[in-house]
Write a structure and sequence with these properties.
It contains 9 helices and 4 strands. It has helices spanning 3-10, 12-36, 41-52, 72-91, 100-129, 145-171, 183-200, 205-234, 248-273, and strands spanning 62-63, 66-67, 95-97, 176-179. The longest helix has 30 residues, at 100-129.
């Protein structure tokens, strides 16, 4: 960025303009998305899931006959990411150190398990829709929603464990250089997520309803965190904050960019498929 561009970004007139434009853009973006998204709380949750998930019915959990907003894998991934971010917010606060090589190994294993199960599941799907053309390609095993949930949950822990310290590195004037994740915290997180997964697998409506909402909040938490960091970098505001209350503008901008991205993807997907349901398989 040139010196002239940086001076413009830091000028009082420009900052005052941004203070008006960002809230206005937030109101317009959210109002348009809210108006066109399906009605009801779960309908709005469906519209968020619609932007990032295939939402194939048989690969999802159901509340009675109603499909959850995200497939089983994405449900696990994003509810676990949301829980992990919340855990770090209390247990690690402003810690900005990455996991390191030792703790990186279990996180890498979570990633590998996610990739292997996802690839195997995708091959199985292709074979189901290829009219026998791909029968020569073997599957490692028959995919199922239990494995999708478990591998997705591991991926959610891994994603949040990288994003949280990365956010702290970008946001705080005086970030704690200590590692956000240690072995004790990893053990606690894995135990919490494993217990929740077991409860989810009961598929009781009283469990699945809050998990449906929590998984969508996890999607929003990840995206808003990423776009808030992007905003700070664009506006040259990295390492400029001492508290969350000071970050209302980056968070509002991140929220606006998140819903703008979701709205655009929703629009394009709806124009392509003509339905708020899953991608057509045939």
């Amino acid at each position: 960025m040139s010196e002239m561009e940086q001076t413009t970004i830091q000028s009082p007139r420009f900052n005052n303009l941004i203070r008006w434009l960002v809230p206005l853009a937030a109101v317009i973006t959210f109002a348009v998305w809210f108006y066109y998204a399906p009605p009801g709380l779960l309908g709005k949750a469906d519209a968020v899931g619609y932007a990032i998930c295939h939402r194939i019915d048989e690969r999802s959990f159901h509340i009675h006959d109603r499909q959850l907003p995200l497939c089983a894998r994405c449900t696990g991934e994003f509810y676990a990411a949301g829980i992990t971010l919340l855990f770090y917010a209390f247990a690690s606060k402003k810690k900005s150190g990455m996991p390191g090589w030792g703790l990186g190994i279990p996180l890498l294993l979570f990633l590998v398990a996610f990739g292997v199960d996802g690839t195997n599941s995708y091959i199985y799907l292709l074979k189901q829709t290829s009219n026998g053309a791909l029968d020569a390609i073997p599957n490692l095993y028959i995919p199922n929603n239990t494995l999708r949930l478990l591998t997705g949950s591991g991926m959610g822990i891994a994603l949040a464990s990288i994003l949280f310290p990365a956010f702290n590195q970008s946001a705080w004037r005086q970030a704690d250089p200590g590692r956000a994740l240690d072995w004790k915290k990893l053990g606690i997180l894995v135990g919490i997520i494993a217990l929740i997964d077991l409860v989810i697998l009961t598929e009781h409506p009283a469990v699945l309803y809050p998990i449906a909402i929590l998984s969508v909040l996890g999607v929003l938490a990840l995206l808003i965190s990423v776009f808030s960091v992007v905003w700070m970098l664009i506006m040259r505001q990295e390492n400029a904050f001492d508290s969350l209350s000071q970050m209302w503008m980056p968070f509002l901008a991140g929220t606006t960019l998140t819903f703008l991205m979701i709205a655009v993807i929703d629009l394009l997907r709806f124009q392509l498929t003509g339905t708020w349901g899953a991608f057509p398989l045939g």
